[in-house]
Design a protein that fits this description.
Largest sheet of chain B: 3 strands, mixed
Strand order of the largest sheet of chain A: 7-6-18-17-16-8-9
Radius of gyration of chain B: 29 Å
Number of strands of chain A: 28
Largest sheet of chain A: 7 strands, mixed
Helix content of chain A: 25-40%
Structural class of chain A: alpha/beta
Radius of gyration of chain A: 27 Å
Distance between the termini of chain A: 68 Å
Strand content of chain A: 15-25%
Shape of chain B: elongated
Number of strands of chain B: 10
Largest interface: A-B, 128 and 103 residues
Order of helices and strands of chain B: HHEHEEHEEHEEHHEHHEEHHHHHHHHH
Strand order of the largest sheet of chain B: 8-1-9
Oligomer: heterodimer
Helix content of chain B: 40-55%
Number of helices of chain B: 18
Number of helices of chain A: 29
Chain lengths: ~775, ~550
């Protein structure tokens, strides 16, 4: 009876207002009185007590109740989610995704939720380690000795074998300021030439494709485009799993859009598709040319846009005429009907956006494939408007920073080393002699490793990447690393496959233990904060570079690079007048207050191609939070027009045959794993979210033919290696194909080192293997 | 002044400066958010919470929109972080249903947590009333400080919800973030789902009852599991009446099965329970044979008492919080665990009394309470409704053990202390009966032996496969122990030996039989395949 009389009160107090009404919800769950027989409360219960967390957080565990919070952009993928880090006395104790950040709208994937977990891992590097000549073991040394060895060894190698005998391999996982510092230190301060980054493995193709087609590496979109399209085409992108928070935006699209997925596998994304084109692996270029041909034949193209804003269309149209529907159907394994439906959907929708990721980028002709996507957007005029675009979804949290500011394959600020004017500009902006800047391009990642294998590159510095696991044909890479006279590995963890091969290990602070900026997929600068103390004597990558500059003897040249914040001001100078102009961003506080700022954001206005909104001179500038490029149809090429670029498709280098009858596909396993699992593998809760052992997805009919039982141990053999893993039978892979996630060390022991000629990105998505039963 | 020159202070180096700088955390001063930050998280969740509290006969429930679940598992990690769980502790999990249809392959990810059942198995089984189903919200809450860590709720819950922590010695589970709900805040998982696939609704308990109660408890065949109206290929909802609703606007394929349907994993071993069950049944068997022989043998009664006390003490090693176990009688209204404890208490009392007064009536009392205790032991497992722990098999095994071990031990004691005993024929007959009962109970499982490649494996198929595959050797050793123990008993009973030889033979027989029963009881636990929500998957 008591209960019944209580109900109307709840309703009447705040009628129709759920939250306020809920404030007076029944609260019999409040601890009752303990008695001899029943313990309602006590120390064990208190372990789970929640308290209001303040700071707009809602309730949080009492023992983790913050006394302050701060925002930091996540350090895993390129989505660039903001996380509210919960602090106790300045130290991070927990986190929640930021509710009012334009990227993630209060959400994070499991990796983001667990971003702090890996910082406390027992295998963190706490002191420099030097391989003892006698015992062959890595032994602790102090920073002074480490730095002396570093400079002595590299100088000796360079003195004896020249500046091209050393190289670095860096990452898309460190801050923009750190990347720029590394590139400048290496090439201008230390006088070396070769350096590349693991972004070669994920984004080199997009970089080159955009640069050639648009005149600058400029992904044109903003995440709002996911919501504003009435047709989304995903090419080689399992967005649902690889970028779950971007997928959130797709699911929030209220326009009931067509979702077209081009992927050999029936991925989670494909299951949500209105059209899934399960094409033959690496027939994507042919398919895209075929669709272009269909659009042209049916006159489903935007003549006006083509004529005003592009070049090379007529040649392109003539070229694609050979890709008749019958030919394309035969080569892709799709039906002519599927091709027509795809083309017709693109033609009839008002706002079509094209999204690609690693399925395109990691191919043997990936640059042309990415450009084939760009061509479709250009010819249908699907660019520069809300819900459109030829949009590369980036991989790493700061791949975009690397693409513009790493000073590795391109000169700082998206410039060219081969361009004398560019070199002069940079020299002037950095107050260094123009001759200090090499007039020669660096070798690419694969060429550096080839140089190592050939004995030409003798000293290598690996920063925050795990070459021995992630590089294609990893046994070969590991073998090459073993030949080095001097291998320095700078990493958070002493246990990565690559760190274990090092002669000198430098312990680095990780995400959360340092400050700087990342640039996400939609060109948004986000800020990361120092919210945790690095273990032992680990130093931020930025400070390691400062130390090296000091020991190398070029500290003077980098006297202005005194802190990440100071370096950010240098980056601003370097960006001035470039398409990626960020001179309008005052400082880190400004970034933090705005919820990230997309480039371009010039102090003169909103940048070169979207000058619609000019800031008032005195006020703190507030750029609109979601902006896209090319609204005016002006591209960054000298003539302001985008280019149609194309090439004849080439056959894969390693087709299947009787001995190796299966195509091996690789890719992301779960949203709880990141790359080589060096960080995600440290979280106990993440480890519960994916299979511990490597597995291969195999079509049931193939398994039946080979007599493979579900969950049995099998061997996969390629011309490079033989590995064992668990057989998972699923019809989501096509017969004749298998899929193995990239996070397991075995995967790249199978893959074949083949590269796109333009981007030199490895082709992870195709090699021939066979399966063997293990009795 | 001093002749000693001051020690030269080493110059501060850049390394010192950088190491010091690395220790400084400045984010707070520069970037900390203002304390008065408004509640921004809440707004998005209003529509995911019910507008009003449950009326009488109603309760809160999770509703999962299968069409929206993308398998990102943010719910699992958010629950973990926002509830401050232990490192590898998770209250929510994400599994997968897959369709074997090769033309239109389908994966359906399923997020699942506690179902806050209308008739919660955990609550019904708890011997110390460490569960409370809130009368207003229907939330099934675990009282962590009341828990004794017996893990019976783990066995009673068909959904793997209560999680035992060895370090803490208790189980913990999802409480639907009741303290959040109480102030109008969404539970952690609801807050964290990018697709708003999880929400809290109010359901009528009678509707849940009506929907599931007519289902037969006994239905365990694959076809039923696949077409389950709660969720395909998941435990029978009639057992506990789960309130979670899994909804979809699509027509799910009829052949959906759990992604881990073909996984055959042995269950956890419980050595203290294994010993408890075998030795306590030996004790009851001794009391039974003591009574059958007239109840005049104090050694038999004493032996029964000692063995039972040892059994019970070893049994407490199973508990995570043994000091709190004195409350275990509290659940007697519903929990067979409490009833077993009370029955064993009565048995030990009766045995103690009998040891003192040595009266035929007290011996009968001891035997009856002992047999009741064994029945309660069996009911503990039968009541979980796990297929391998069904009544015929479990009662057969437990009473078979009682007869077998009781007869062998009683014979040994009779020879040792020249106590009264039944005739050899009678003893052998009862022992043989015990063996027959056991063999009948134990062999039933092999009716369910199928090819591992069969399209659908249910729990009993998997148990049979475990007992012939992974545990095949152990199962055979168990048969050899039983057979050789019986042979030794026969030889000792009918051969003509010196007293010492006879005693030795009988001791060997008892040892072999006890060893055999321990193996059988170990297999009773490890070869059992617990029901569970769809798991596995590689998303």
């Amino acid at each position: 009876m008591k209960t019944m009389s209580r109900e109307p009160k709840v309703e009447s107090r705040k009628p129709g207002h759920a939250l306020a009404g809920a404030g007076s919800r029944p609260s019999t769950l409040d601890p009752r009185q303990n008695s001899l027989l029943r313990q309602w409360t006590g120390p064990l219960t208190e372990d789970l007590t929640l308290h209001p967390g303040d700071f707009g957080l809602g309730k949080v565990p009492a023992r983790l109740r913050p006394d302050a919070t701060t925002r930091s952009v996540c350090g895993f993928c390129s989505t660039g989610c903001s996380l509210d880090v919960h602090l106790q006395s300045g130290v991070a104790v927990n986190l929640t995704p930021t509710a009012d950040y334009p990227v993630n709208l209060g959400m994070a994937c499991p990796k983001g939720w667990e971003a702090l977990a890996c910082l406390a891992a027992p295998d963190r590097g706490t002191t420099p380690l030097l391989r003892d000549a006698k015992t062959g073991k890595l032994e602790p040394v102090d920073w002074d000795e480490a730095m002396q060895v570093f400079t002595l060894k590299f100088k000796a190698i360079m003195d004896q074998h020249g500046p091209e005998s050393v190289a670095f391999l860096s990452t898309g996982q460190i801050c923009t300021e750190e990347m720029a510092f590394l590139g400048a230190l290496w090439k201008f301060g230390m006088g070396a030439l070769h350096g590349d980054s693991n972004t070669r493995q994920c984004m080199a193709t997009s970089h080159v494709a955009y640069k050639q087609s648009f005149g600058f590496d400029a992904p044109p979109y903003t995440y709002a485009d996911f919501e504003e399209s009435d047709c989304l085409v995903f090419i080689g992108s399992n967005l649902c799993i690889a970028h779950p928070i971007m997928w959130q935006r797709v699911m929030r699209n209220k326009k009931n859009p067509d979702i077209i997925v081009i992927d050999p596998r029936r991925t989670e994304t494909a299951m949500n598709a209105t059209q899934h084109l399960a094409l033959a692996p690496k027939s994507d270029l042919t398919l895209l040319y075929g669709i272009a041909n269909l659009l042209i034949q049916k006159n489903w193209i935007n003549r006006e846009f083509i004529e005003k804003h592009t070049t090379g269309f007529e040649e392109f149209a003539a070229f694609v005429r050979q890709f008749t529907p019958d030919k394309v159907a035969a080569e892709t394994g799709l039906t002519v009907g599927q091709l027509f439906r795809f083309a017709e959907t693109i033609a009839t929708r008002k706002a079509v956006s094209f999204w690609w990721t690693m399925g395109v980028n990691q191919g043997h002709e990936s640059t042309r494939t990415a450009q084939a996507v760009i061509n479709l957007a250009l010819m249908t005029g699907n660019i520069g408007r809300p819900g459109t675009g030829a949009n590369s979804v980036t991989g790493q949290c700061n791949a975009m920073g690397s693409r513009i500011f790493a000073n590795a394959s391109g000169l700082l600020g998206g410039r060219d080393f081969l361009n004398a004017e560019h070199r002069a500009e940079v020299a002037r902006l950095l107050h260094i002699a123009p001759e200090t800047i090499p007039a020669k391009n660096s070798l690419a990642y694969d060429q550096i490793l080839q140089g190592v294998a050939d004995g030409k590159v003798k000293g290598l510095w690996v920063i925050a990447t795990n070459t021995a696991h992630s590089w294609i044909d990893s046994a070969r890479a590991t073998g090459a690393l073993a030949k080095l006279d001097f291998l320095v590995v700078q990493d958070m963890f002493t246990t990565t496959e690559t760190a274990r091969q090092a002669h000198l290990f430098l312990p680095a602070a990780g995400w959360g233990e340092k400050e700087g900026t990342f640039i996400n997929s939609e060109r948004r600068f986000g800020h990361i904060k120092k919210v945790s103390r690095a273990p032992g004597h680990a130093l931020s990558d930025f400070n390691i570079f400062r130390l090296i500059a000091n020991y190398w003897g070029c500290a003077e040249m980098f006297s202005q690079w005194s802190s990440p914040q100071a370096a950010f001001q240098i980056l601003k100078r370097l960006s001035a007048g470039r398409p990626c102009d960020i001179t309008g961003i005052a400082d880190y506080r400004h970034l933090d207050a705005e919820g990230g700022i997309q480039w371009p954001f010039s102090k003169l206005g909103l940048g070169t191609s979207d000058g619609s909104q000019t800031q008032t001179p005195d006020a703190i500038p507030h750029p609109p939070s979601e902006r896209r490029l090319f609204a005016d149809g002006k591209f960054f090429t000298p003539d302001g027009r985008a280019k149609f670029l194309f090439d004849q498709p080439r056959a894969v280098a390693e087709p299947t045959n009787e001995e190796f009858p299966f195509v091996l596909l690789t890719g992301r396993g779960t949203s709880a794993q990141w790359h080589t699992n060096t960080r995600t593998g440290k979280s106990a809760v993440l480890r519960t979210l994916y299979p511990a052992k490597a597995y291969a997805e195999i079509h049931p009919s193939d398994a039946a033919q080979l007599g493979l039982e579900p969950n049995s141990e099998i061997a996969i053999v390629s011309r490079r290696g033989r590995v064992t893993c668990t057989a998972v039978l699923t019809p989501t892979v096509q017969p004749g194909q298998i899929f193995v996630p990239m996070h397991y060390g075995v995967t790249n022991q199978l893959t074949r080192g083949e590269f796109d000629p333009h981007s030199r990105q490895p082709s992870y998505k195709h090699c021939a293997v066979r399966l063997e039963q293990i009795s | 002044m001093s002749a000693i020159s001051p020690v030269e202070k080493p110059e501060r180096t850049l390394i010192d400066d950088l190491l010091a700088e690395q220790r400084e955390l400045t984010a707070v001063e520069i970037f900390a958010r203002a304390h008065d930050a408004h509640e921004v998280r809440g707004r998005r969740y209003e529509k995911l919470l019910p507008a009003a509290a449950p009326a009488p006969g109603q309760q809160y429930a999770f509703e999962v929109d299968l069409d929206k679940c993308s398998g990102c598992k943010a719910c699992v990690t958010a629950c973990h972080s926002l509830n401050g769980l232990d490192d590898d502790e998770t209250w929510r999990s994400v599994g997968e249903l897959v369709s074997a249809e090769t033309r239109a392959p389908m994966k359906q990810t399923v997020t699942t947590a506690c179902h806050h059942c209308v008739d919660p198995g955990c609550l019904n089984g708890c011997p110390v009333l460490a569960y409370d189903k809130d009368p207003l919200t229907g939330i099934v809450r675990h009282l962590d400080d009341q828990c004794i860590g017996c893990q019976y709720c783990v066995m009673k819950c068909p959904y793997e919800v209560p999680q035992y922590s060895k370090a803490r010695g208790i189980v913990r589970k999802c409480d639907m973030c009741s303290s959040r709900l109480a102030v109008g805040e969404a539970p952690a998982c609801v807050q964290a789902c990018p697709h708003e696939a999880i929400k809290i609704t109010v359901v009528d308990q009678s509707k849940v009852r009506g929907k599931y109660r007519q289902l037969d408890f006994g239905i365990q065949n694959s076809k039923f599991k696949i077409q389950n109206s709660f969720l395909p290929d998941s435990p029978n909802p009639a057992i506990t009446l789960p309130t979670t609703r899994f909804v979809t606007n699509r027509t799910l394929p009829t052949n959906l099965e759990a992604a881990d349907a073909h996984e055959i994993q042995p269950a956890q071993a419980h050595p203290p329970l294994t010993i408890l069950l075998v030795l306590s049944q030996l004790g009851v068997g001794l009391a039974l044979f003591g009574a059958l022989a007239g109840g005049h043998s104090r050694p038999t009664a004493l032996a029964a008492l000692v063995v039972t006390l040892i059994a019970v003490n070893i049994g407490t090693l199973h508990l995570g919080q043994p000091l709190k176990a004195w409350r275990s009688f509290l659940g007697w209204r519903k929990s067979w665990f409490s009833r077993e404890l009370i029955a064993f208490g009565a048995f030990i009392g009766a045995l103690g009394l009998h040891c003192v007064i040595l009266n035929p009536l007290s011996s009968i009392l001891a035997a009856v309470t002992g047999l009741a205790a064994v029945a309660c032991s069996a009911m503990i497992y039968v009541d979980t409704r796990r297929p391998f722990w069904n009544a015929p098999m479990t009662f057969g095994k437990f009473f078979g053990t009682t007869l077998l071990l009781g007869s062998v031990a009683a014979t040994l004691l009779a020879v040792l202390w020249r106590a009264d005993s039944l005739t050899h024929i009678a003893v052998i007959s009862l022992a043989a009966l015990g063996v027959l009962v056991k063999l009948a109970a134990e062999n039933r499982i092999f009716q369910f032996l199928v090819d591992e490649q069969s399209p659908h494996l249910d729990a009993l198929n998997k148990t049979a496969l475990l007992l012939t595959g992974r545990f095949g050797l152990l199962a055979r050793i168990r048969v050899v122990c039983l057979a050789s123990g019986m042979l030794a008993l026969l030889v000792a009973s009918f051969g003509s030996f010196s007293a010492t030889a006879q005693i030795t033979l009988l001791a060997v027989a008892l040892t072999l039989c006890v060893a055999g029963e321990l193996i059988e009881r170990h297999l009773f636990f490890v070869a059992e395949v617990a029901p569970k929500m769809p798991g596995g998957g590689t998303v």
